[in-house]
Amino acid sequence: MTAQTSELIAGQGLTTTKAPYIEQAVANGDMYIEQPYTLYSEENHDTWRRLYARMQERWERYANPRFLDGLVTLSFDDARVPRLEDVNRFMAPRTGFKAKAVSGFVPAFNFFDCLSRREFPTTITIRDGSSLDYLPEPDIFHDIAGHVPMHTDPAFAETLVRFGACAHLAAEMVSRAGNPAEKLRRLTSIQNALQRFFWFTIEFGLMRGSSSGEIKAYGSGLLSSYGELVHSIEDPSVQRHALQLEWVINQHFEIDHYQPLLFIVQDFEQLFEMVGELESWMKSGKLDNVTPGYRQMSEADAQSFLDASLSR
């Protein structure tokens, strides 16, 4: 164990909202951390096993083929929480991406910047096994089982890198704004656009299947949810539309219920080109006045971009 974990007991648990190791890391101001694997309890491993087991049939039925290929590539142990070093050993040779352990919240610029460097900020705690569907915040099942298999696909990986680089472009655009109030206004609008794009694609995206009318999921929020994965594709109340940038960047979303509106891409090559269109719109100022959000941009998110803009 590191010095940070020397007083912690092996097997005491890394349960979301109940992990002393994470509390200590946050108190120390440590955003990027190690995965102290010996701290996982048998209950933690059992939670992973049950989460993973119940998704098998649903992945086979509703996940896009590249996600399924990613599962094969990563060779997860279905009975134990994955070691990030093992995940990276299988993933890095394919696309250069690596899972990077974090203590929790990562400010927006830092998160996008990690993507641009082929690093994926990864939560290491796992949800409480007494309620498999309740997820107060992202956990390792969402991040590793939901996100990371997609990172083994070259086309999807390049899309993430390109999207991550949008944060640097956003910081540059903000640096050109005049007074502090205008900087914050422009930043808030651009951040809303980036956040919404990420939400409706990387987190909750759908894709055309190989046969006419077939739809598959590629968004991690769907692929890590036992209930919403089925709902997103089967429920007739869900609105499903072809991805259109002007719709996505102006569309509100809420995080505490199944999504009533989802967007469909043809393939990851189209998604890559859509990120290019997002870049062009940012350069031309089209992202400076998107529909305002119903939630305030957090101070940490705003400051991360403002700090980055100062170095431009």
What labels would you give this structure?
312 residues; alpha/beta; Phenylalanine Hydroxylase; 4-stranded mixed beta sheet; two-stranded parallel sheet; 6 strands; 8% strand
The chain-level structural class is alpha/beta
CATH fold-level label: Phenylalanine Hydroxylase
- Using only C-alpha atoms, the radius of gyration works out to 19 Å
CATH top-level class: Mainly Alpha
Instruction: Please give the domain count.
Output: 1
Please give the order of strands in the largest beta sheet. Answer: 4-3-6-5
Name given to the CATH homologous superfamily: Aromatic amino acid hydroxylase
CATH architecture: Orthogonal Bundle
Largest sheet: 4 strands, mixed
- The geometry reads as globular
Average pLDDT figure: 93
Order of helices and strands: HHHHEHEHHHEEHHEHEHH
